[in-house]
Every structure is written in structure tokens, then in C-alpha cells.
């Protein structure tokens, strides 16, 4: 351990060292006061032993993601025939629509997660709802499950020449 005479140390250093000592000891005392978590060894009841329980999945990773029947190209072609570019739309862009695909392959609960503008968002949701396109549901360990899918829908006002709502 190093020993210094008080005359060798500046007042500024002594104040800094004292403050550091008090703060670090307060933090150490606070961490010692915390109680460690106790693991309950009897967390599984004896009645559940031997039964197969349904695993709970947290997150969005699945073995096989939901996809439209016939593939994405066919789905996008059908969607592009249904969707109409809104009259008041001036800028080119995309809106992103979130939907849930249930275990029977139906898309529902459409929600805009990134907006382009109000008219484009309403048109995207309208077209997807009216389309009611069938999906192959997502699968995890061979079982169908409900999954979330986010679809970008592009709008380009320059390409609406064949649009009836021009």
C-alpha cells in the first residue's frame, strides 16, 4: 500500500478521493442489501409429470412461415389487380400493413404499421380485406399456428393510367 503525506496531496485530490470512497461504498452496500432469487425446486407439480404440455412460444421465429396459396407472385398479381391508386395521392411510396394469419389460413386484423398517407392506407386495408386470399398457415413442429405478417404495398401515382378512378 502506498503512503503519502498530506502535504504531498492537493486539496482537490483529497476531495475527489473522499467522494469516490463514499459513493463506491454506498453502491456496494446497496448491492449487498439485495436478496438473491431463490429457485423453487418443486416448480413443476407432480400432477403434470408424464403429461405432454403445449410449449409456449415467445417471439416471431417459426419453422415454416405462412405463405399465400399459389405463392407470393400470384398473390401480388391478384392484389395489384384489386388495389387502386387513390385520386389525391401525389407522392410515390409504400405503406406497411400488418395482418394475422390464423391456423385455418385466413388473414385478418389488418393494421397499418407504417403509413404513407390516409388515403393510401385505407385503400391498402380495403383491398386486402376484400381480396380475402387464402393462406397456408405457419407451422411449428408440424402444428399450424397463428402468425403475424407485415406486407409492404407500393403506390405510384405515375402508373395509374389504366386506373378507372383516375
List the defining traits of the structure above.
single chain, 29% helix, elongated, 3 helices, disordered C terminus, Fusion Protein Consisting Of Minor Coat Protein, Glycine Rich Linker, Tola, And A His Tag, Chain: A, Domain 2
Please summarize what this structure is:
The protein has about 170 residues and is α+β, with helices and mostly antiparallel strands. The protein has helices at about 10-35, 70-80, 120-130; strands at about 65-70, 95-100, 105-115, 135, 140, 145, 145-155.
| Mean pLDDT across every amino acid position | 76
Q: What is the fold named in CATH at topology level of the domain at 67-159?
A: Fusion Protein Consisting Of Minor Coat Protein, Glycine Rich Linker, Tola, And A His Tag, Chain: A, Domain 2
Rg, rounded, reads 30 Å
Regarding quaternary structure, how should these chains be classified?
Answer: single chain
Number of helices: 3
CATH class of the domain at 67-159: Alpha Beta
Uncertain segments are 30-47, 161-166
Q: Which CATH architecture of the domain at 67-159?
A: 2-Layer Sandwich
**Protein structure class:** alpha+beta
User: How far apart lie the N and C ends?
Assistant: 86 Å
- Overall strand count: 7
**Biggest sheet: strands side by side, in what order?**
3-2-7
Outline the biggest β-sheet.
3 strands, antiparallel
One letter per element, helices H and strands E, the order comes to HEHEEHEEEE
Shape: elongated
Beta-strand percentage? 15-25%
Helix content: 25-40%
Amino acid at each position: 500500500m502506498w503512503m503519502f503525506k498530506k502535504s504531498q496531496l492537493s486539496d482537490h485530490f483529497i476531495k475527489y478521493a473522499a467522494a469516490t470512497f463514499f459513493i463506491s461504498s454506498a453502491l456496494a452496500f446497496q448491492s449487498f442489501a439485495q436478496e438473491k432469487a431463490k429457485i423453487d425446486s418443486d416448480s413443476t407439480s407432480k400432477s403434470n409429470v408424464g403429461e405432454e404440455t403445449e410449449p409456449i412460444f415467445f417471439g416471431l421465429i417459426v419453422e415454416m412461415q405462412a405463405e399465400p396459396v399459389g405463392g407470393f407472385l400470384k398473390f401480388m398479381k391478384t392484389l395489384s389487380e384489386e388495389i387502386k391508386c387513390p385520386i389525391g395521392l401525389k407522392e410515390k411510396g409504400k405503406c406497411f400493413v400488418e395482418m394475422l394469419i390464423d391456423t385455418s389460413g385466413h388473414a385478418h386484423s389488418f393494421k397499418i404499421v407504417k403509413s404513407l398517407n390516409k388515403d393510401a392506407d385505407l385503400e391498402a386495408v380495403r383491398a386486402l380485406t376484400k381480396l380475402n386470399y387464402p393462406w397456408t398457415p405457419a407451422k411449428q413442429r408440424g402444428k399450424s399456428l397463428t402468425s403475424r405478417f407485415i406486407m409492404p404495398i407500393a403506390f405510384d401515382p405515375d402508373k395509374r393510367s389504366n386506373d378507372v378512378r383516375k
